[in-house]
Amino acid sequence: MLQEFWESKQQQRAAFPSEGVVVYESLPSPGPPFVSYVTLPGGSCFGNFQCCLSRAEARRDAAKVALINSLFNELPSRRITKEFIMESVQEAVASTSGTLDDADDPSTSIGAYHYMLESNMGKTMLEFQELMTIFQLLHWNGSLKALRETKCSRQEVISYYSQYSLDEKMRSHMALDWIMKEKESPGILSQELRMALRELEEARKAGQELRFYKEKKEILSLALTQIYSDPDTSSPSDDQLSLTALCGYH
Q1: Model confidence over 103-135: pLDDT tens digits?
Q2: Which Pfam families does the record associate with it (predicted)?
């Protein structure tokens, strides 16, 4: 049913016209409980939240969660409209120390959020989720802070990254950021990876969208793999790391 749903959407060219594959991933395990993830076109990821005694059961459960969210995403209330933006900004103001006046100032967090929503007018929340995940990751690994120090405005950063998808190149740049952090604070990679795995498991069992947590795990795993598999990567020169990071920030 999940596959048919997305094939139908591709035929209608209603969403993610260039990405038409539903991807399943089962975690290796010698025995139950088994864990399975399903990634939808556009990148949203869901997993089984029940305790599953077989890989097939875990895959079906993950597909069920993804299908429910896919159908829910079709509701009018899940599309970004002027009314949706107004309500979202008001909710953001209520949960922070900001004001409604901040919505017109892109240099503030509320203003940046408002600008991101307006830039994605007409899209569904699953379509908007990929951009949000990119900025969650940029905030998590310190890239946004580095960009602010170069005097880039939030609006410029949003406009730049809105043109790109979360791909292997972006993951590699973020992994290099964490290799730099590991060089400065040995052990931080393993600590962050343990935290990411715990967050991923908790979110999966709660039936939440998982891409942010799963991307964190994959980026940190990539960084550890590069450190332990490539002697040159474990101790690169400061100039090389700075140049690579700068290319990542553009």
Answers
A1: 888 777 788 888 888 888 998 888 888 888 988
A2: LIX1
| 57 and 89 part of one domain | no
Three-class DSSP category at 47: strand
Q: What is the pLDDT of residues 205-223, one digit of tens each?
A: 999 999 999 999 999 999 9
In a domain, 34, yes or no: yes
Give the structural domain span for 46: 1-73
In a domain, 223, yes or no: yes
| 20/25 Cα distance (integer angstroms) | 16
Cα-based angle 204, 173, 110 (whole degrees, multiple of 5): 65
Of 150, 165, 180, the last residue of a domain is 165
Q: Identify the segments of the chain with pLDDT beneath 50.
A: 17-18, 233-250
Instruction: Please work out, in degrees rounded to the nearest 5, the angle formed at the alpha carbon of residue 129 by the alpha carbons of 126 and 130.
Output: 110
What six digits make up the tokens of 208? 């939440």
Neighbours of 177 (CB within 10 A): 22
Domains held by the chain: number? 3
Assess if residue 238 is contained within a domain.
no
Do 233 and 179 contact (CB within 8 A), yes or no?
A: yes
